[in-house]
């Protein structure tokens, strides 16, 4: 495994992030534990989750699965850089109650204690804001975060799904208050969705945030979906935005060109999608959310995959980025 520092921090993390969103909804507890053991054996030390994972009536279930894994001992918790998120309402559907979601100081305090209990740990290494909160002052958020840092409940704060200007506002407020500020941004970023290159990633680089791309294969769109379709596996290979995208003839032609290119070079699409992100400026490591051990093994192989200049140039031709801001939309 290869490692890098998370943004401007001294924290060393693996260049592959283990995403756990499927643990519970898609993968049972025993298999989830086996995947985490295999990830640790492969040198993956950066695990990402969120308080709402488990979804529906099972919100929090994913954190619980991590907690029972940590409780097995064997230095599991000590070896892992643990990241979770706060924002979503943890109440059951139709049972929402004020102050049980978003980023008020009250909810942050309540949410972190609940996550610590589910995770069976005394601290969270990276506590991430899952979404921007348009109704809570940034000063209030940093006041709550600084208290948690002083209490030893969290070490660092990060953002997720923030616009470039919001990263700037949040860190400039932190600077004014004497807080350390955001150290990471978790954003949607992959070959098929490169808008983050315009402003989010430049803002993250300017403020010393490590970029942690989620959905690196765009919901399966970049994982060899057309080949799997021919083999009869399309039902498991696409969902949500990727299924909708593939129905577009222009996108389908683009994905076909992608798969043809990689077939020509003897490369696996899913591994290339991850390996490409590892070549991008500012990227700490993509989040791979395996349902199975085989998917984890494929993601681990991507860390050592070296893409030739020819392949990289061809990928840019198939999936051209927007270009830097403001030139992407001005002169």
Describe the secondary-structure layout.
Blueprint (H helix, E strand, L loop, with lengths): L2 E3 L6 E3 L2 E3 L9 H13 L4 E3 L12 H10 L5 H4 L1 E6 L18 H15 L4 E6 L8 H14 L2 E7 L3 H14 L4 E7 L11 H7 L3 E5 L10 H6 L3 H4 L2 H7 L2 H16 L4 H9 L9 E2 L4 H11 L5 H10 L13
Parallel strand pairs: 3-4, 3-10, 4-5, 5-6, 6-7, 7-8, 8-9
Antiparallel strand pairs: 1-2
Helix pairs in contact: 1-13, 2-4, 4-5, 6-7, 11-14, 12-13
Number of strands: 10
Main beta-sheet strand count, sense and barrel state: 8 strands, parallel
Strand order within the widest beta sheet: 9-8-7-6-5-4-3-10
- Unreliable runs: none
What is the helix tally?
A: 14
Q: What distance separates the N and C termini?
A: 42 Å
- How large a portion of the residues is in β-strands, by DSSP E? 5-15%
SSE ordering? EEEHEHHEHEHEHEHEHHHHHEHH
Helicity, as a percent range: 40-55%
Q: Whole-number average pLDDT?
A: 95
CA radius of gyration is 20 Å
Broad structural category: alpha/beta
Structural shape: globular
Verbal overview:
The protein is 42% helix and 14% strand. With 331 residues, the protein is of the alpha/beta class. It has an eight-stranded parallel β-sheet. Strands 1-2 form a two-stranded antiparallel sheet. Helix 1 links the parallel strand 3 (17-19) and strand 4 (46-48). The longest helix is centred in the C-terminal third of the chain and has 16 residues, at 249-264. It is globular. The mean pLDDT is 95.
Structural key phrases:
331 residues; alpha/beta; two-stranded antiparallel sheet; globular
């Amino acid at each position: 495994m290869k490692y890098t520092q998370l943004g401007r921090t001294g924290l060393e993390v693996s260049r592959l992030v283990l995403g756990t969103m499927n643990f519970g909804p898609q993968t049972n507890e025993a298999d989830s534990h086996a995947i985490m053991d295999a990830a640790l054996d492969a040198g993956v030390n950066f695990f990402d989750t969120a308080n709402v994972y488990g979804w529906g009536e099972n919100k929090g279930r994913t954190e619980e699965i991590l907690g029972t894994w940590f409780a097995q001992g064997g230095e599991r918790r000590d070896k892992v850089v643990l990241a979770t998120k706060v924002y979503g309402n943890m109440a059951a559907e139709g049972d929402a109650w004020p102050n049980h979601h978003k980023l008020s100081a009250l909810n942050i305090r309540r949410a972190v204690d609940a996550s610590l209990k589910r995770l069976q740990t005394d601290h969270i290494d990276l506590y991430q804001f899952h979404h921007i909160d348009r109704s809570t002052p940034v000063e209030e958020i940093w006041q709550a975060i600084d208290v948690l840092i002083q209490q030893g409940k969290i070490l660092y704060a990060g953002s997720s799904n923030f616009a470039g200007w919001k990263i700037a506002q949040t860190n400039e407020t932190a600077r004014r208050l004497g807080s350390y500020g955001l150290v990471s941004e978790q954003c949607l970023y992959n070959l098929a969705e490169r808008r983050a290159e315009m402003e989010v990633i430049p803002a993250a680089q300017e403020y010393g945030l490590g970029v942690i791309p989620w959905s690196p294969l765009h919901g399966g769109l970049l994982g060899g979906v057309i080949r799997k379709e021919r083999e009869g596996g399309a039902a498991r290979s696409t969902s949500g935005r990727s299924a909708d995208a593939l129905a577009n003839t222009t996108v389908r032609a683009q994905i076909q060109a992608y798969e043809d290119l990689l077939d020509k070079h003897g490369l696996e699409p899913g591994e290339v999608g991850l390996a490409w992100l590892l070549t991008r400026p500012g990227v700490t490591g993509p989040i791979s959310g395996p349902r199975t051990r085989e998917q984890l093994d494929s993601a681990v192989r991507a860390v050592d995959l070296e893409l030739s200049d020819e392949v990289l140039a061809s990928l840019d031709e198939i999936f051209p980025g927007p270009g830097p801001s403001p030139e992407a939309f001005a002169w």
